[in-house]
Amino acid sequence: MRKVTVKIIISGFIIMMISSLFPRILWGIYRNFGPSIEMDEGFMVIVGFISVFISILLFSFFMNKVILKRIKDLNNATRQVIDGNYDFTLEMNQKDEISELTNNFNRMVKELQSNEYLNKEFIRNVSHELKTPLSAINGYAELINSSELSVKEIKEYSAIIASESKRLSLLAKDILQISLIESQSILHHNEEFKISEQIRNVLQLMQLEWEKKDIVFDLALEKAFSTSNKELTYQIWTNLISNAIKFSKKGSHINIKLENKNNKIVFTISNPGIISIQDQEKVFDLFYVTNKTQSRGSNGVGLALTSKIVDKLNGTISISCEDNNISFIVTLPI
Q1: Any residues with CB less than 8 A from the CB of 92 and at least 6 apart, and which?
Q2: Where are the alpha helices (DSSP H) in 150-273?
Q3: Which residue, of 67, 85, 103, is where some domain finishes?
Q4: pTM metric for this prediction
Q5: Is residue 92 part of a domain?
């Protein structure tokens, strides 16, 4: 039985007991000071009205104190949230369903307050990131239109405009993907699929990129099956392998390992490189780029997107740097 229901039943019983005592008390007073020891009809009617009035008064007081006032507070708080005010917390003095509702409401307000801050920060960062390529495109376009330039200079500036346009397009695409991932509260799980086959498909898709740099892949892929979201897991391998190719020098070796450990899938990709401890702590932050990554055209979105996808799939992702090798380790439930 619900706690609120129990409170109503107990209070009703107590109110009935209290109300039943009033006729006895009034009869005692009437018998001691009244003209007769017999209870007449007029006195009985008066006692009945008084008992009913007291019962209604006590029940109204209880309902207002235990239920109505708390619901009214929740209603007023909801109006504040609608108006955009998240800086408050409702008090909880009891332990019942309404208190549980109040607690959940307080948690919701905190989440909304946090999301509001994150959204403002996100918009501020996006505005800053979009400003850089747009400024470059505008500046070089004005140079081409307003100055007497050589054919070589025009080709050079046109190449910069094309490069910045491509960067702007990729940035917009990555931001859209992050928004879609964050908006998905329920992820659909596909039929069982083979992780190792996904990884080989990604490598085949990027063959032209790694062949241009004479990169060699050392693969150690165990047979691993998953019933997770097929599209999102494919995106994880795509982002990490593309990142390793981009930041590897010509003729490098990239190691990829896929294992089954304790009913979990463990994916590890390692490529030559060094990253500082400070950068390791921030590498999954949105729009965070180091001097090296910035010089190679990174917008600081790819790893942040990968981290959000892994989190949505109830997995973990980490980075380590040992023996001049950068390793990313992804763990996913089967």
Answers
A1: 99, 102, 103
A2: 151-183, 195-205, 207-212, 230-246
A3: 85
A4: 0.56
A5: no
pLDDT digits (tens, 9 = 90+) for 191-244: 788 999 999 999 998 898 899 999 999 999 998 888 888 888 988 999 899 889
* DSSP-derived 3-state class of residue 286: coil
Rounded CA gap, 147 and 107, in Å?
A: 60
Q: Are residues 61 and 173 in the same domain?
A: no
Query: Which domain covers residue 142, as residue numbers?
Result: 121-183
Residues 46 and 20 in one domain: yes
Going 61 to 67 to 70 to 72, the CA torsion angle's sign is negative
- The answer to whether 160 and 180 have CB atoms below 8 angstroms apart is no
DSSP H or E segment with residue 260: strand 253-261
Same domain, 23 and 127: no
Q: Which residues pair with 167 in a beta bridge?
A: none
Same domain, residue pair 171 and 233? no
